[in-house]
């Protein structure tokens, strides 16, 4: 695996050289994981992978409590205590650099200013500037390798299994919180799943009209829509799946809306193939929902990328003209949300193949399957 991470760093280095950079500094934890295999949650502490393109040297700057996490990375590391200033190590390593590639989207302004001030006040130092490598990194992470695709597929399979078990136990009077706990228990029962973080959303009845709502003590009632949106993490890679169930037959309007959302999702998935602009996937679903008279209630993009993060590039929306490419992995998740009544969302994970698309999540989603 060490060679895998080195190959990824080499890809980034090649792109940075072409852009005229001489040094790189990677600080976002998820990107550190991608390029080194080191998983950590630094909280407020500073972390960095520094790479000198001119000499080929690399160095990690990490809190001292992360010694064990870094020992097998194959990269020299410097550790600092909570009483130390880690930026002194950074300034020393960067030396006489002129153009440093950084993730401007996630680098705090305080950190950037402190490092630049330290560098530009060194005797004889030419002015150092920061260039953005956010797009470079996203571009590399966008296309999944065989190992990543394997892990993403296995994560999706666990989602199917957990959702089947949990949905079979839902009953009238159960709270959103208790269903959430059942999902957590099901995850914990799988030895291969990581449970250091959870992404679970359970919304019942009127609460399902909020795409980003939170589980509460709201209880399941007859006819209620029950939206379950969650991801599992396998070998650091995520799934992201949503199904909207009904506690017994719902009102006729919900049945009709469900069929509209399902049709929109199926048509959007059928649109996925290499070379198709991402906007077309979003607009395909939007046309179905708009034609049925619910266009104003589809209030978010059709999907997003998944990988080491449950939300990452690409962002599949109506203005994104970038074409889909083989090995991209994303969600397709149209929805209709009626304030004060409830909402319907159906979400699956898909991978762009050489000649089309493969759906990775397979929990049933016909209307009949959703009525509990």
Please list the strands of the largest sheet in the order they lie side by side: 4-3-2-1-5-6
In the predicted model, the low-confidence regions spanning at least 5 consecutive residues are none
CATH architecture identity of the largest domain: Alpha-Beta Complex
Percentage of residues assigned to helices? 25-40%
- What's the β-strand tally? 17
**Tally of individual helices:** 11
Tell me the strand percentage band.
15-25%
- What Rg, in angstroms, do the CA atoms define? 23 Å
Give the CATH superfamily of the largest domain. Creatinase/methionine aminopeptidase superfamily
Polypeptide structure, described:
This protein is an alpha+beta fold. It is elongated and about 75 Å long. A hairpin with a 5-residue loop joins strand 2 (48-52) and strand 3 (58-63). The mean pLDDT is 95. The strands form five sheets. The chain has a six-stranded mixed sheet. Strands 7, 8, 9 and 10 form a four-stranded antiparallel sheet that branches. A three-stranded antiparallel sheet has the order 13-16-17. The chain has two domains: 2-140, Creatinase/prolidase N-terminal domain (Creatine Amidinohydrolase, Chain A, domain 1, 3-Layer(aba) Sandwich), CATH 3.40.350.10; 143-370, Creatinase/methionine aminopeptidase superfamily (Creatine Amidinohydrolase), CATH 3.90.230.10. Helix 4 (86-94) packs across helix 5, helix 7 (146-167) packs across helix 8 (176-188) and helix 9 runs antiparallel to helix 10. 35% of the residues lie in helices and 23% in strands. The two termini are 45 Å apart. It has eleven helices and 17 strands.
């Amino acid at each position: 695996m060490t060679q895998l991470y080195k190959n990824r760093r080499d890809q980034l280095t090649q792109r940075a050289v072409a852009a005229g950079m001489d040094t790189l500094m990677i600080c976002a934890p998820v990107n550190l994981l991608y390029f080194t295999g080191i998983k950590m949650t630094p909280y407020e502490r500073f972390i960095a992978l520094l790479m000198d393109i001119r000499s080929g040297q690399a160095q990690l700057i990490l809190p001292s409590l992360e010694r064990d996490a870094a020992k097998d990375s194959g990269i020299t590391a410097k550790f600092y205590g909570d009483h130390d200033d880690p930026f002194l190590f950074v300034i020393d390593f960067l030396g006489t650099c002129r153009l440093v590639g950084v993730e401007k989207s996630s680098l705090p302004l305080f950190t950037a200013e402190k490092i630049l001030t330290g560098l530009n006040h060194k005797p004889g130092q030419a002015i150092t500037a920061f260039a953005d490598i956010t797009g470079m990194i996203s571009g590399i992470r966008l296309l999944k390798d065989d190992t990543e695709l394997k892990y993403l597929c296995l994560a999706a399979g666990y989602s199917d299994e957990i959702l089947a078990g949990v949905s079979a136990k839902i009953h009238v009077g159960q709270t959103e919180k208790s269903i959430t706990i059942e999902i957590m228990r099901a995850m914990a029962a799988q030895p291969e799943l990581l449970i250091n973080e959870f992404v679970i959303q359970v919304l019942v009845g009127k609460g399902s009209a909020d795409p980003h709502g939170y589980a509460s003590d709201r209880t399941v009632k007859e006819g209620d829509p029950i939206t379950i949106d969650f991801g599992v993490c396998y070998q650091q890679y995520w799934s992201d799946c949503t199904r909207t169930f009904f506690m017994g037959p719902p009102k006729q309007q919900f049945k009709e809306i469900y069929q509209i959302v399902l049709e929109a999702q199926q048509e959007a998935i059928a649109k996925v193939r290499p070379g198709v602009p991402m906007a077309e996937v979003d607009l395909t679903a939007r046309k179905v929902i708009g034609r049925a008279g619910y266009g104003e209630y589809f209030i978010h993009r059709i999907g997003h990328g998944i990988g080491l993060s449950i939300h990452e590039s690409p962002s599949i929306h109506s203005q994104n003209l970038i074409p889909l490419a083989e090995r991209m992995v994303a969600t397709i998740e149209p929805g209709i949300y009626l304030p004060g009544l409830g909402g319907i969302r159906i979400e699956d994970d898909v991978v762009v193949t050489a000649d089309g698309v493969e759906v990775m999540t397979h929990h049933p989603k016909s209307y009949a399957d959703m009525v509990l």
